[in-house]
Write a structure and sequence with these properties.
The protein contains 17 helices and 25 strands. The structure holds fructose -6-phosphate.
Length: 612
Amino acid sequence: MCGIIGYIGNKPASPILINGLMRLEYRGYDSAGISTIEKNGLSIMKDKGRVKNLYDIDGIDKLTGTIGIAHTRWATHGKPSKENSHPHIDNHNMFSVVHNGIIENYNELKTFLLDNGYTFYSQTDTEVVPNLVHYYYTKDTKSDKLKFLRAVKNACNMLNGSFAIEILCKDYPNNMIVVRKDSPLVIGKGEDENYISSDIPAILSFTRNFYLLNDLEFANLSKNSIDFYDNNLNLINKETTVIEWNTSSAEKDGYDDFMLKEIYEQPNAIRETIGAKLDDNSRCDFSELNFTKDFLSSLNNIYIIACGTAMHAGLTGKYAIENLCKIHTEVDVASEFRYRSPLIDKKTLCIFISQSGETADTIAALKLCKEKGAKTLAISNVIGSSLTREADYSVYTHAGPEIAVASTKAYTSQVILITLLAIYFAEVLEQNNSEINLLKKDIIELPKKIEETLKLSETIKNFSRKVYQEKDIFFIGRGIDETVAKEGSLKLKEISYIHSESYPAGELKHGAIALIEKDVTVVSILTDENLVKKTISNIQEVITRGAKTLIITNKDINEDMFDVVIKIPDTNTLLSPILSIIPLQLFAYHISKEKGLDVDKPRNLAKSVTVE
Ligand code: F6R
């Protein structure tokens, strides 16, 4: 939530900042703003609405400052408005600040500052920060080159909550200070220039060399130096991490939207995820984990914890782990898990799934599990993300940057990775059997089958045209198909704004069937051989009540009963979510386009949910 960008170098900062904000806009689009240091001091230009509105601000094209900070906002405290937009400035126009996160004790800090004569123009939590920095700056009687840094450090030590902050100071026109706690921030190192960003793709066209800050570490940047400090202001050493993603993977590459591009990237994303983990004859290779048979046999249970789509991927993981490894597995929504006293101890393995690796609830759940003595394993798409730095072990999906707010390739790559993990566990536990060998063969064939499934786009588009004006759409399935129903329903509601619900097919008659009437659309997923007949009986029940039916299946069924049948390639049931979700991603996409909506940036949503 919220994106921040910073630049310090020899070039005019404002075009670089605005360009960076455009790439971060998926994180929030309620308002945008930039602050640069110009010859006459700090300049701030900001407005409500999308980043492109910045181009309409008088004088923005005349800025020449070569140091600047910028922000695109997902509103938490204070409605979207110009005065609530970042950057924020202190009462004496000395410090400008952009902030991603939430200052939980801002009311107390505001009272403290009001008592000390400061005033406030916005309803934001952030506005306390520049004023607090000013307060400590003026209290500091020394005047050396670290005075700015000391003031920032003293102010940050007063903040509760989460923050990634960039600060400029009028008195230090060649420096910028950044700090983070529980909110993402990366530093990109260039030649005589440095970049700051909330995520890697936004500045990938400038550099591949990144520094990752840990909580409460400070960086003092000039154009050709970066000094890192711990929370006692001791200098610390940091190595750069080289990021291999190519720049075109962060561009639309001729597609209308990132979401469509990412849907079509799935064959390759899955190839990358499988990578060297598997080839035809060998055991599944997770050398980065090195789990022993003793450790895995000691486990009483496994928890999979995540949010949203990542949690749906976790649900498929439960099927794979219980099926192949015979270890009891539970799946939890991270925001609930934290508050329900889960039974965790040394005999528990907790697996966290997060595309971004920055989701606040997932990170908080991981910290809780560590405190309780469990072993923690992160599955993420972002190397060096906060989640992976907290976890005991990390494995990566390698799906490339995912920019569209609605997750697609991250989901399928998470499903395949957790299935591979389940195979690895089973092999370490010596539960190797013929089922695993067949499953491995099916995994190798998956990318080709995804390519075949993508060819069904036109049929799905035609059906979407018939139903895009509907108010409610239902998704049903049984077994692993029900987890796909959940994900299909989430995809539809988030980008089409159509009300949608998903149900285990057998559960419909316990209540929800009351909502089925003539011409309501029901989408059914049928891939589990053992459950197909039972699900068809449930579909029959909704047809009797007048429902229109869209069927996603890999089985030979009597198609005459249904309005539209999408036949996808056959595969192992544990892998079927990777194929059956693709028509549903395309269904949501085409409906959203038909309605003329912004597919990549649905209302009220942000890609990384870095606040609780
Ligand atoms: C939906 C979607 C979200 C995310 C969720 C977790 O399309 O993208 O539901 O899956 O916010 O995000 P990560 O995976 O970054 O933890």
